[in-house]
């Protein structure tokens, strides 16, 4: 029978006929089964993705109906596999496309809509599965023949529910010895209610002609809604109706601006508002409550799409006004949000954000609430069928169909819904009888009461006066899963449903008992089973408490009398700290493992343990496990474990580059444990980046796994944007060292986001961080000054590497595996220290003192007086590391006393950025005959802690509290014999005569007893409760009151605006030997409101920085390449009547009226906006950023072009070194800076490197000083006073002396800022 004739019958007759054909043809039966298998697989894959409408629209209109084939045209091609000969193993592979030629298959040609090829599967081997082996890889290796070209853009409607697509002029075909062209006919049919969709099925293949039939709901007709209502239009790029009556309010909306207030309504008048005449007022100005004024009426409404927003216009001739309301899509705005934007003459502009105008598409079903809890509604999505809900409506029982995370499925036998992206419907036996209860226009939203809400809007008309239906589903967290329940239909035709389901519970607290867990946001499975040690248990100790641990199973060795399920054992008495199975918990990027049911002995409770796992890209299995502390209030032992097994997939690239005879190595900036964070001054956006590696995944940086830099939008629920993937290492461009991340998230139709970091060499800034310099539309630019960006000589680096291979002068931190290498301190000449009695101390690091004045050839330390010298210890290269300090011990010097010999202990302390000390003789222990020397050097730095604490709202900077020349002294109110020394974020500065443990940031000074260390600066500050900031120092000296414990300290910074910088005070000592200090300071208070473009507050200094002196009568002229920039500040105008910056071509780069002065991570930035248009710019216009840098020697300074402008098109970047921004001059420092000379060259014949540090002294009690010593001191003071008095009298009597006195009197009697500046430079 001719299939063409069959296709003209009604679909039901045709359906049974095709089934009969398939029964008669076994090959066709096999073909259909194979197609069903492939179709099911492709259907699952397709529905897993979020369907976004293709740019290729395929919509046919005829006789008042619409046929939307767009979802069929989205694919490059549809695949059909036809078995041609089972015995020979041959099959035909067909590719078909709808409304466009086949894409990405070269051999099909550029115009073919159908092409086919033959596969002989027997030639591909026995393992080749004929059912599933045809994939893209196979397709790209086949030689296809065209089965017909696209000759018409759309299929032809043959009758209601039937379409025919003809492909002609295919490849050459021979029929009856005649050469012809292949032709294909595709018949698209709307399925019956009892039928399901199929894929394309080959029904017949007479020579040179292929006939396909495709049962698809896309061929079902949809009635075109004809209406003259101006509030019913169509969505952008879609034929679906957009019913704006859903935005109408029963009364009105409120919109406000600066001193402006309005009552507004859409698609209807304001009801019960302030404007009563006329009664059709759509907008009422109520800025003056005593005189409300109508400015628009509801009859003058019109709509139109402009770019991505819908513009509603009220044009009123009565009030001579024009009102534009810009409606923007916001899929989280469950209720419309109105804002007044501006008024220019009689033109009013408003903005509205609502879900109602969002183009229908599948919703985002994985989302977060304000507390960063993650929710996942995907388990409620149905690929087949729908959620059927029986409800009573108008005294009748009706069936509602719902779906979540995608449109309803029109596959039920007796419950059809309208076609399209509909989320809910009132079902019927046919699509034409059903009712649309709302398109998928919004994303689910978490409510403050703990429920979730999903709204579908823009449905069919409901009743007279309510032209649009909608649906609201409220999801309620429940341990038991219930089906959705219908509640009611409101007066506004909103259909309310409630759904109690576990899917409404936050998934960020997902747990597991089997050592594996899945990230619900990104889908990665974390497997901790490799951390199970099958040969021996882990030993963990903090020097005070000792534990044996194993995970993913019990301990291998018994724990005292504890259960065999014990996984954590305290070796003090064999006490269980918890048993397996443990609970593995995923908390939005953080993994913890909780062990319960430990031993009794913690009050009435049992001990438990918790391990916090943190991602470390380079940690091995056993190296990251640490014991933190015991929380006795909750009976929990806390452990920390850095490991690669909680890191998601990431990229690491080579981090060095060679340029001629030098190379650059940025590896020290590539941190496997911590990201760099840059927070904008408004605290609404956070940039997270790393160097040469993907960002470290954590709760604070939930970025894409492959992102080298990402943006976290705090103002929009911490949504992340991938700013570039890690793909290659650093490179040199125009002499600048740069690193680029590319192919981030899509920026526009043609580009993806990328990031460029430009590194500058500096020898002063070891603790550095990146600064955001500029943002174009798709490019983000950072600048980073660091010592690691300085070039290194290749030949010198090779020699250093050879020496390090011999393990000379190196030590390893066993916990972090960091290698301290002090070979850089080796020197051909000795280091010199002057001693008070006139002698010299000569020192050498890991080598002998090479100086003729020292008689002992093997001395590492030698004392030289006028005629003699003696050794204070023999040199060696055995660098040691203990108690977080690296040190050398030189022993076996000259005889001292009691049979002992002199020795020297040189402790190496991390170099301070602000102060270059080198070696300092701290004290002499004459009992043990030991000299104690602290050597401050860069080589002793394992890491500088960052003196910043980050919260989700802001960054706290404690660096202004760091002292570089002295220490903070804190008294103990309970013991006058105890004094505490502390510093902030760095080790204590040297105190001559007080031998605090080297490298400690805190120290206890006890009368007549040795000092004790309060811990080392290892941990960064963090934000605690009530926005306080905590800084903790750990691994201090042994606790004298609790054997086995180590001292530590915690500084708690508390906001007090009146305290200025503030000072620390003693708070308490805890039971686990931790000293607490409280520090009230304005530095941790919320930042002040910064206004203006010339003054900015510095809260800690209680004053302002004022840039007025930089304003010039004429513009500053800055040359850049062939261009000249003119600029001014503080309201100065250049080029025209409003520009603050322009170039020689007259292009404006920002206006004086659009300027912003702000702090960005300790950098003062002046930005000008609103320049001339530039399409490449992120904002669409040109702009300027001026970075002010403190330089006391630059005076007012001059702006200079920053080299980073090479990468920018629409933004000008300048740096301005000036003394006006030096914060040190704005307040008086609590420390007096002593005159300590820098390293200089000695004039002695030995030409040794010379230091003049403070003098050492032996600690003595005041009572040991003899009476004649006091008398000698008193006589000396009286003699000096007499000499000075006589000198002053003689000089004062002379005329020159009187002139000096008058000049000094005038100078020091001045008041104001000059006196402060003079004091600061003393």
Task: Summarize the structure in words.
It is found in: Endomembrane system. Helices cover 8% and strands 37% of the residues. The termini are far apart. The N terminus and C terminus are likely disordered. The chain is mainly beta. The protein contains nine helices and 95 strands. The strands form 24 sheets. Strands 3, 4, 5, 6, 7, 8, 11, 12 and 13 form a nine-stranded mixed sheet that branches. The longest helix has 27 residues.
Could you give a short description of this structure?
This protein is mainly beta and 1322 residues long. It is 8% helix and 37% strand. Helix 7 crosses helix 8 (1295-1308).
Q: What characterizes the major β-sheet? A: 9 strands, mixed
Task: Describe the global form.
Answer: globular
Strand proportion, as a percent range, falls in 35-45%
Radius of gyration computed on alpha carbons: 40 Å
Task: Determine the mean pLDDT.
Answer: 77
Tally of individual helices = 9
Count of β-strands:
95
Q: Helix- and strand-based class? A: mainly beta
Low-pLDDT stretches = 1-56, 123-133, 800-806, 1232-1273, 1298-1322
Fraction of residues in H or I helices: under 10%
Distance between the termini: 109 Å
Pfam families: CIMR
Main location: membrane
GO biological process, one term: lysosomal transport
Subcellular location: Endomembrane system
């Amino acid at each position: 029978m001719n299939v063409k004739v069959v296709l003209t019958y009604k679909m039901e007759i045709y359906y049974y006929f095709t089934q009969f054909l398939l029964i008669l043809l076994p090959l066709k039966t096999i073909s259909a089964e194979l197609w069903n298998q492939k179709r099911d697989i492709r259907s699952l894959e397709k529905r897993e993705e979020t369907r976004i409408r293709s740019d290729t629209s395929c919509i046919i209109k005829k006789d008042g109906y619409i046929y939307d084939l767009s979802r069929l045209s989205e694919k490059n091609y549809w695949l059909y596999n036809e078995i041609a000969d089972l015995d020979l193993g041959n099959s035909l592979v067909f590719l078909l496309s709808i409304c466009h030629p086949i894409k990405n298959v070269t051999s099909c040609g550029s115009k073919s809509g159908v092409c086919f090829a033959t596969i002989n599967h027997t030639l591909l081997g026995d393992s080749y599965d004929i059912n599933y082996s045809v994939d893209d890889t196979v397709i790209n290796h086949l030689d296809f023949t065209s089965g017909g070209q696209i000759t018409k853009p759309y299929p032809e409607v043959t009758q209601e529910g039937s379409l025919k697509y003809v492909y002609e002029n295919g490849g050459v075909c021979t029929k009856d010895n005649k050469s012809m062209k292949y032709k294909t006919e595709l018949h698209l049919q709307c399925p019956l209610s009892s039928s399901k969709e199929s894929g394309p099925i080959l029904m017949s293949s007479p020579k040179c002609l292929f006939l396909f039939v495709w049962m698809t709901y896309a061929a079902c007709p949809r009635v075109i809604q004809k209406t003259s209502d101006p509030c019913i239009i169509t969505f952008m790029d879609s034929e679906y109706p957009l019913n704006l009556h859903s935005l109408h309010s029963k009364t009105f909306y409120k919109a406000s601006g600066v001193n402006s207030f309005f009552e507004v309504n859409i698609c209807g008048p304001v009801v019960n508002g302030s404007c009563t005449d006329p009664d059709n007022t759509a907008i009422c100005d109520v800025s003056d409550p005593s005189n409300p004024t109508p400015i628009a009426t509801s009859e003058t409404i019109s709509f139109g799409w402009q770019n991505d927003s819908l513009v509603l216009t009220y044009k009123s001739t009565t009030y001579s006004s024009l009102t534009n309301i810009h409606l923007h899509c916001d899929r989280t705005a469950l209720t419309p949000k109105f804002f007044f934007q501006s008024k220019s003459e009689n033109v009013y502009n408003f903005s509205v954000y609502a879900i109602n105008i969002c183009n229908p598409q599948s919703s985002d079903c994985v989302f977060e609430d304000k507390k960063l809890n993650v929710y996942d509604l995907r388990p409620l999505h149905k690929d087949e069928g729908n959620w059927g809900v029986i409800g009573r409506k108008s005294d009748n029982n009706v069936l509602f169909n719902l779906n979540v995370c995608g449109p309803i499925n029109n596959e039920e036998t007796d419950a059809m819904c309208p076609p399209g992206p509909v989320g809910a419907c009132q079902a019927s036996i046919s699509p034409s009888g059903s009712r649309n209860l709302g398109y998928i226009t919004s994303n689910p939203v978490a409510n403050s009461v703990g429920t979730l809400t999903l709204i579908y809007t823009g449905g069919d008309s409901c009743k007279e006066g309510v032209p649009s239906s909608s649906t609201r589903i409220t999801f309620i967290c429940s341990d038991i899963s219930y089906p959705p329940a219908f509640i009611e239909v409101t007066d506004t035709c909103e259909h309310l449903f409630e759904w109690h389901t576990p899917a409404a519970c936050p998934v960020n607290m997902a747990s597991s008992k089997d050592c594996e867990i899945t990230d619900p946001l990104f889908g990665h499975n974390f497997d901790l089973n490799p951390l199970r040690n099958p040969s021996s248990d882990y030993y963990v100790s903090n020097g005070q408490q000792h534990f044996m641990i194993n995970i993913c199973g019990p301990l291998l060795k018994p724990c005292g009398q504890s259960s065999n399920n014990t996984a954590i054992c305290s070796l003090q008495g064999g006490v269980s700290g918890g048993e397996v199975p443990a609970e593995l918990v995923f908390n939005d990027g953080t993994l913890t493992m909780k062990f319960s049911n430990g031993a009794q002995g913690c009050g009435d409770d049992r001990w438990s343990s918790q391990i916090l796992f943190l991602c470390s890209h380079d940690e091995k299995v056993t190296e990251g496990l640490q014991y933190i502390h015991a929380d006795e209030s909750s009976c929990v032992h806390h452990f920390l474990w850095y490991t690669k097994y909680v890191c998601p997939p990431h990229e690491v690239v080579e981090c060095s580059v060679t340029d001629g005879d030098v190379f650059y190595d940025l590896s020290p900036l590539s941190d496997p444990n911590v990201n760099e964070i840059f927070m904008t001054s408004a605290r609404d956006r956070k940039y997270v980046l790393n160097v040469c590696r993907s960002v470290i995944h954590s709760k604070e940086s939930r970025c894409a796994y492959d992102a080298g830099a990402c943006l976290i939008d705090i103002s929009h629920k911490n949504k992340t944007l991938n700013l570039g993937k890690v793909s290659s290492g650093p490179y040199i461009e125009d002499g600048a060292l740069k690193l680029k991340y590319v192919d981030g998230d899509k920026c526009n139709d043609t580009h993806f986001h990328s990031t460029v970091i430009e590194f500058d060499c500096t020898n002063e800034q070891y603790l550095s961080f990146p600064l955001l310099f500029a943002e174009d539309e798709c490019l983000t630019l950072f600048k980073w000054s660091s010592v690691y960006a300085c070039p290194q000589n290749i030949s010198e680096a090779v020699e250093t590497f050879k020496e390090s291979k011999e393990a000379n002068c190196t030590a390893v931190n066993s916990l972090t595996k960091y290698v301290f290498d002090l070979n850089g301190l080796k020197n051909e000449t000795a280091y010199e220290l002057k001693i008070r009695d006139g002698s010299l101390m000569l020192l050498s690091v890991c080598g002998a003192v090479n100086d003729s004045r020292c008689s002992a050839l093997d001395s590492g330390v030698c004392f030289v007086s006028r005629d003699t010298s003696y050794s204070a210890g023999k040199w060696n290269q055995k660098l040691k590391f203990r108690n977080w300090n690296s040190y050398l011990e030189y022993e076996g010097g000259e005889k001292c006393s009691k049979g002992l010999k002199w020795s020297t202990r040189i402790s190496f302390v991390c170099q301070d950025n602000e102060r270059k000390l080198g070696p300092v003789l701290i004290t002499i222990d004459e009992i043990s005959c030991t000299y104690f020397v602290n050597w401050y050097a860069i080589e002793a730095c394992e890491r500088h802690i960052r003196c910043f604490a980050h919260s989700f709202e802001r960054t706290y900077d404690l660096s202004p509290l760091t002292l570089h020349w002295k220490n903070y002294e804190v008294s103990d109110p309970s013991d006058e014999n105890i004094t505490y020394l502390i510093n902030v974020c760095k080790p204590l500065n040297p105190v001559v005569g007080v031998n605090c443990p080297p490298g400690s940031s805190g120290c206890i000074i006890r009368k007549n007893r040795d000092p004790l260390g309060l811990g080392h600066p290892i941990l960064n500050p963090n934000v605690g409760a009530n926005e306080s900031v905590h800084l903790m120092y750990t691994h201090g000296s042994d606790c004298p009151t609790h054997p086995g414990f180590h001292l530590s300290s915690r500084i708690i910074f508390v906001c007090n605006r009146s305290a200025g910088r503030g000072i620390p005070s003693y708070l308490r000592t805890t039971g686990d030997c931790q000293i607490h200090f409280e520090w009230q300071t304005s530095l941790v208070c919320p930042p002040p409101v910064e206004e203006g473009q010339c003054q900015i507050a510095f809260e800690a200094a209680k004053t302002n920085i004022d840039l007025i002196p930089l304003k010039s009568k004429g513009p500053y002229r800055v040359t850049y390449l062939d261009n000249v920039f003119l600029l001014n500040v503080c309201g100065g105008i250049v080029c025209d009547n409003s520009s603050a910056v322009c170039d020689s071509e007259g292009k404006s780069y920002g206006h004086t009226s659009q300027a912003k002065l702000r702090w960005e991570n300790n950098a003062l930035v002046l930005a000008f906006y609103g320049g001339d248009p530039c399409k490449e710019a992120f904002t669409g216009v040109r702009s300027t950023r001026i970075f002010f840098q403190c330089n006391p020697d630059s005076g007012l300074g001059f702006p200079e072009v920053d080299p980073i402008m090479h990468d920018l098109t629409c933004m000008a970047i300048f740096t301005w070194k000036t003394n006006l921004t030096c914060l040190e001059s704005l307040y008086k420092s609590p420390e007096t800076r002593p005159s300590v000379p820098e390293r200089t060259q000695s004039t002695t014949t030995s030409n040794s490197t010379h230091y003049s540090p403070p003098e050492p002294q032996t600690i003595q009690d005041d009572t040991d000083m003899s009476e004649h010593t006091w008398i000698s001191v008193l006589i000396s003071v009286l003699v000096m006073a007499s000499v000075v008095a006589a000198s002053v009298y003689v000089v004062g009597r002379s005329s020159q002396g009187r002139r000096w006195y008058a000049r000094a009197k005038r100078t020091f009697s001045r008041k104001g800022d000059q006196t402060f500046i003079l004091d600061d430079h003393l």
